[in-house]
Amino acid sequence: MWAGKKFSYTSLDEAYQLISRAADKIKPETEEIPIFQAYSRVLAEDIISEIDIPPADISHFDGYAIKSEDTSHINKTPLTLKVVGKSFLNSEYRGKIHSGEAVYVSTGCTLPRGADAVILIESVVEKGDLIEIRRRVGKYENVTPNGIRHQKGRGCPKKGANSTSTGHQTPCRY
Fold it and tell me: Which residues pair with 42 in a beta bridge?
């Protein structure tokens, strides 16, 4: 059956190019489906975020929202800050904090204006409406910064990405 026929071999690179050219000619079908049905699908276009995700700086733990620069001079003497409010998911603190102030924040709360870090509740000494901090706290410590996952106007995720159980739903959570 094959006797007398001549075959030529194709290099791996050539074979890859032939397959790529053939695949480029195929136009896959697209369809719009609800996000909850997108698991294990491939995106036909970029999903463009309409907002920053998260939409604000968010506390990653229970603690006190502070200005990190207030702690920059801590050495042996602890820093004392006045607690000027509390922030919970159902009633967030709406004011702005100033140097020398702190606001109690629960996990997932938006940081008050002026705050750029959270010190864990376990890391402070509470004395009525004052807290004592004994170490320096870095900027964005214990904070999920605004736009860290996705930025407004950018693709998140991109065309051709495989969906996962969480990846494509992220823009829909906020």
Answer: 162
Separation between Cα atoms, residue 57 and residue 125, nearest integer Å: 25
Judge whether 48 and 80 are in contact, CB under 8 Å.
no
Task: Domain 58-144: state its class.
Answer: mainly beta
Determine the Cα–Cα distance for residues 100 and 83; give it in Å rounded to an integer. 9
59 vs 171, residue with greater confidence: 59
Under a CB-based contact definition with an 8 Å cutoff, are residues 48 and 155 in contact? yes
DSSP β-ladder status, 130-133 and 79-87: antiparallel
Separation of alpha carbons 16 and 19, rounded Å: 5
Among 1-5, 126-130, 138-142, whose mean pLDDT is lowest? 1-5
State the alpha helices, DSSP H only, in 31-169.
none
> Using the 8-state DSSP alphabet, how is residue 91 labeled?
B
Indicate the domain borders of the chain: 58-144
CB proximity list for 29: less than 8 A, separation 6 or greater = none
